[in-house]
Each structure stands twice: as structure tokens, then as C-alpha cells.
TrEMBL record:
This is Endonuclease V-domain-containing protein. GO terms for molecular function: RNA endonuclease activity producing 5'-phosphomonoesters, hydrolytic mechanism; single-stranded RNA binding. The lineage of its organism: Eukaryota, Fungi, Fungi incertae sedis, Mucoromycota, Glomeromycotina. Keywords: Cytoplasm, Endonuclease, Hydrolase, Nuclease. Its main location: cytoplasm.
Length: 266
DNA sequence: GCGACAG
DNA sequence: ATCTTGTCGC
């Protein structure tokens, strides 16, 4: 009888992974390094932000089947949307076999390889629509070592990425970054769509931001720098992609990879 | 030791 | 992540 815990990584394996993250993080760029520009205009005292030359935004995700054994299979998806219309112009999927369990803080070691494959395939086959920035379903710098899946993928692919999480990952940097404090502050400060508050720890470090997508969405999303982009720009791009709580690139990646599972596997 | 814990 | 119908509200 093979149960799932015989595939659990050892402590030394996790320490090795942590070293890999710290090593790769040396290449991390947390400022805007983009091939499009941002302009901020004043319109009756209101800030109007425009991204000039931004045409293609990507979204990546993995969807899993009902797993019963330790042999998990999943579908990885890469979606490209036209900006600013948010029309889907490309989708691709790949099936993945996964043996390692999910471990908070080490998500990239489960998911990054198939996502990287999809990106490299697109760059080879259709370089003209390769996304100028990719929104990733998972955190970037909002991570114990400031190097979550979004940053990991961004560095390996050398592409600008933004991390978006649906749940808060607690960071060990003082009381302000505990689950309880973040929940309370979200309720207190995020009153309308577009409201944000910075997730700053006791050290002064800013790890990401809690963002209210729309007026009618109560639960925030958690935005952080992936790679080659600033937190401010990340938040602004995410907000421009929000027709619902989850920004369209990752929302479409999620919807379409699930649909793929329904039609091809189930 | 206990609790927390992206997807 | 995923199992799942109805249901409350705009």
C-alpha cells in the first residue's frame, strides 16, 4: 500500500530548496523593467493611469483532478489576453504528473516546470504574441524568502511577472503580518474597489499588498512583485484586469484548465 | 511544543 | 487545490 506520505520531502530536501530559492533570488528585479510605459494623468483631480505599448498579458495556472492516490495529475495552462480589451487570443495546456505534495513556501517546486515549458513553447511557436507581463496564480515576494512561484517563474523565464494570491500567506515579520491582523485591517481599510493597503512587517519590509478588486467584492486579493516590475505597477495592472475578483488572465487560466479536464479526462 | 500554512 | 445545491442579494 503506497500512501502519500512516503513521497514527502525530507528536511534536508527542503533546506536544499530554500537554498535554491535564495540563490535564484540574486537575479530578482523588483523595479519596472518593462517594454511598455506607464503614464499618470490628472483628470479633475482623479489619477488616470495608462499603459502605453502594453498589448499582451499572460495568465498561468494549474488545475488538479480528484486525486485519490499519491499520483496526482494536473493540467497546466497558459493564456494570453489582448490588452486592454482582455480578449483571449491564445490558450495552451499540458498534462502533468505530480508526486510531491503541496508544501507552503515551496509551491514552485511543484508547479514551475510545466509553466516554464508552456512559456518556452509559446516563445518558439508564436513569439509575436509572447506576453509582456504574466500574472501568476500564487505569490511573488509575499513569501518567507521573498521568492514565491511568481518570482521563481519570472526569473527562470526572464519575463516580468506579478503574483496574485487568493489567500494570505503569513510571513514571520511581526504582528502586522499575522492572519488576524491582516483580516482586521482589510475589513477596516479596504472600503471600495481599488483600495489597497501595503503589507509591511516590523522590519519595515514591504512584502506585497492586500487589494480590493471591485466595489462589491469583500474578500481581497494579495498582490506582490513577481519579477521585473514594481509593486505599484503590479497593483495598477492587476486592477485594470479585474472584471471579477480574480484578474482575467489567471481567472481565464483557471476556468479553461478546468474545462480542459472535463472534456479530456473525466 | 503549538499553531499557521500561496496552490 | 478539490468535493458540491441551494440560496441570499443586487
Amino acid at each position: 500500500m503506497n500512501s502519500n506520505y512516503d513521497n514527502n520531502p525530507s528536511i534536508t530536501q527542503m533546506e536544499e530548496w530554500a537554498r535554491v530559492q535564495t540563490e535564484l533570488k540574486l537575479n530578482l528585479i523588483e523595479t519596472d523593467d518593462l517594454d511598455f510605459t506607464k503614464t499618470i494623468k490628472e483628470d479633475n483631480g482623479e489619477q488616470v493611469i495608462e499603459f502605453n505599448g502594453l498589448n499582451y498579458i499572460g495568465g498561468v495556472d494549474l488545475s488538479f483532478e480528484n486525486n485519490e492516490n499519491n499520483e496526482e495529475s494536473a493540467i497546466a495552462s497558459l493564456i494570453v489576453l489582448k490588452y486592454p480589451s482582455l480578449e483571449v487570443i491564445y490558450e495552451n495546456f499540458s498534462s502533468v504528473k505530480l508526486e510531491l505534495p503541496y508544501i507552503a513556501g515551496f509551491l514552485a517546486f511543484r508547479e514551475v516546470a510545466p509553466l516554464l515549458d508552456l512559456l518556452q513553447n509559446l516563445k518558439k511557436m508564436k513569439p509575436n504574441i509572447f506576453p509582456q507581463v504574466i500574472i501568476v496564480d500564487g505569490n511573488g515576494t509575499l513569501h518567507p524568502r521573498r521568492f514565491g512561484l511568481a518570482s521563481h517563474l519570472g526569473v527562470l523565464a526572464n519575463v516580468p511577472t506579478i503574483g496574485v494570491g487568493k489567500n494570505f500567506l503569513q510571513i514571520d515579520d511581526g504582528e502586522t503580518l499575522t492572519m488576524a491582523h491582516v483580516k482586521a485591517t482589510v475589513k477596516e481599510k479596504l472600503k471600495k474597489g481599488g483600495d489597497t493597503y501595503l503589507l509591511q512587517g516590523q522590519s519595515g519590509m514591504i512584502w506585497g499588498a492586500a487589494v480590493r478588486s471591485l466595489d462589491h467584492t469583500t474578500n481581497p486579493i494579495f498582490v506582490s512583485v513577481g519579477h521585473r516590475i514594481s509593486l505599484e505597477t503590479s497593483i495598477q495592472i492587476v486592477l485594470k484586469c479585474c472584471r471579477y475578483r480574480i484578474p482575467e488572465p489567471t481567472r481565464q487560466a483557471d476556468i479553461r484548465s478546468r474545462e480542459y479536464i472535463r472534456n479530456h479526462i473525466s
